[in-house]
Amino acid sequence: MGRFSEILKEESKKEYYIKLHKFIENEYMTKTIFPPKENIFFALENTPYEYIRVVILGQDPYHGEGEAHGMAFSVNPGIKIPPSLQNIFRELNRELNCYIPNNGYLLKWAKQGVLMLNSVLTVEKDKPASHQGIGWEIFTDRIIEEINKKATPVVFMLWGNFAKKKQELITNPKHLVLTSSHPSPFSVHYGFEGCGHFILANQFLKKNKIPPINWQIDNI
After folding, report:
1. What count of other Cβ atoms lies within 10 Å of the Cβ of residue 106?
2. What predicted TM-score, i.e. pTM, was given to this entire model?
């Protein structure tokens, strides 16, 4: 994880993180928690700090069986594509003529420098937002603050009111912040649909002599 490992090491000594760690350990022992324990930091492990070009911020992991694997909006291969991700794919089709893939496994984006970070990294099965307010937000805010320090420009995609609150952490004028409504079926028509974020992100990266993202997810 490079720089992220250092941050984890620093944070793990703090009182909030010690309490958080104890709580999470107990949750995994006594309940069904997602993602699998070994995948809690999957996003940070697969998009090294040095390579981050885009950050997509989610709220908390999917809470259904087999869906979450540690990256915001992404689901494991073979799992039905959730509605929010279907709307993301529709927007990509509209903007860049990407075909709608048969899966929602977004590792291809991660490997190109797209960090898909949930603000809360764990959840109890069938209980959305069950792990909010226990300390994960402090840790992930610390991650965002560190990315904000990057000398190379980064695109931040903040979808929905929860994500938009993180705007205050992004103070570096080198970065581009894109905001809209959340791609969920309840709010997609209030700004996300037709937002142009994927085109704008690639235009910004090219302008800064950074390779653009290939947003097409391949069929499996």
Report:
1. 24
2. 0.97
